[in-house]
């Protein structure tokens, strides 16, 4: 049984500038500070831009009672998320993007419900009734829609959005998972491996906006790799999803 104490909110800092600062300011404004263990921002020595570094320096100077942790990634690519998972001190963890592409206003509601149901995963969804995609691209939206339907059948789960890891989950769960990918499929692992382990999900509607800042590192090739990853995770033994005890 999990107990909710607080949540560690994690985000990357690579090419984002004003939206990175806007993300931090918004979180501090809309969230109860007692609910936040920390805000963790992870940067890359190789890829983080000079302009992004300047914003990180600004964020360091914010006067707040919420700890803001700015850390260097040690793992390659998207496995940097694993660095933030290891660093998280909250009972629960939440990964978000720092480009303001999703509506952060749902986070307080997700936190309140995580207090009531700390053992389930509280996840954002772009495909619930009433949600809208803005400037997403017709073909990209078409592929995304059918990917959700395919994954719903493959995993036999009545979820609407399997490819967005904006979810509040017990930190102990994330810390126990053996993550294998270093590309964007790492984000798919964050959703599909908890499903394989039997965790229940509760979804919350969010609109999807165009990236307002920075450059996307995602690619069509990486998106296509999701299919192979989804099949791999679906049929891998559950014991292989969990880290060996000595590595936890």
Explain the overall architecture:
With 248 residues, the protein is α/β, with parallel strands linked by helices. Helices cover 38% and strands 15% of the residues. It has helices spanning 18-30, 50-60, 80-87, 107-116, 138-155, 171-176, 185-196, 220-235, and strands at residues 7-13, 36-43, 68-72, 92-95, 121-125, 167-170, 201-205. Strands 3-2-1-4-6-5-7 form a seven-stranded mixed β-sheet, sandwiched between helices. Helix 1 links the parallel strand 1 and strand 2. Helix 7 (185-196) runs parallel beside helix 8. The longest helix has 18 residues, at 138-155. The protein is globular and about 50 Å long. The mean pLDDT is 93.
Mean pLDDT: 93
Q: Largest beta sheet: what is the strand line-up?
A: 3-2-1-4-6-5-7
Strand content: 15-25%
Amount of helix: 25-40%
Give the helix/strand class.
alpha/beta
Coarse morphology: globular
What is the tally of beta strands?
A: 7
Largest sheet: 7 strands, mixed
What's the order of the H and E elements? EHEHEHEHEHEHHEH
Enumerate the spans where pLDDT stays under 50 for 5 or more consecutive residues: none
The Cα radius of gyration reads 17 Å
The tally of helices reads 8
Instruction: Note the gap between the termini.
Output: 18 Å
SSE inventory with pairings:
Layout: E1 7-13, H1 18-30, E2 36-43, H2 50-60, E3 68-72, H3 80-87, E4 92-95, H4 107-116, E5 121-125, H5 138-155, E6 167-170, H6 171-176, H7 185-196, E7 201-205, H8 220-235
Parallel strand pairs: 1-2, 1-4, 2-3, 5-7
Antiparallel strand pairs: 4-6, 5-6
């Amino acid at each position: 049984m999990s107990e909710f104490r607080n949540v560690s909110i994690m985000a990357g800092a690579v090419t984002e500038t004003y939206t990175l600062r806007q993300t931090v300011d918004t979180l501090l404004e809309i969230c109860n500070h007692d609910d936040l263990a920390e805000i963790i921002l992870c940067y890359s020595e190789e890829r983080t831009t000079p302009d992004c570094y300047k914003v990180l320096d600004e964020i360091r100077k914010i006067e707040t009672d919420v700890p803001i942790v700015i850390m260097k990634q040690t793992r390659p690519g998207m496995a940097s998320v694993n660095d933030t998972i290891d660093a998280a001190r909250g009972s629960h963890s939440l990964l978000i993007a720092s480009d303001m592409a999703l509506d952060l206003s749902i986070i307080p509601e997700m936190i309140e419900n995580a207090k009531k149901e700390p053992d389930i995963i509280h996840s954002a969804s772009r495909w619930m009734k009433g949600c809208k995609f803005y400037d997403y691209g017709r073909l990209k939206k078409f592929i995304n829609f059918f990917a959700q339907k395919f994954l719903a059948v493959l995993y036999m789960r009545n979820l609407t959005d399997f490819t967005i890891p904006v979810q509040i989950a017990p930190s102990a769960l994330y810390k126990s998972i053996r993550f294998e990918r270093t590309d964007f499929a790492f984000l798919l692992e964050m959703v599909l491996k908890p499903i394989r382990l039997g965790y229940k999900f509760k979804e919350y509607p969010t609109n999807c906006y165009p990236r307002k800042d920075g450059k996307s590192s995602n690619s069509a090739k990486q998106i296509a790799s999701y299919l192979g990853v989804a099949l791999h995770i679906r049929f891998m033994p559950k014991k292989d999803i969990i880290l060996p005890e000595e590595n936890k």
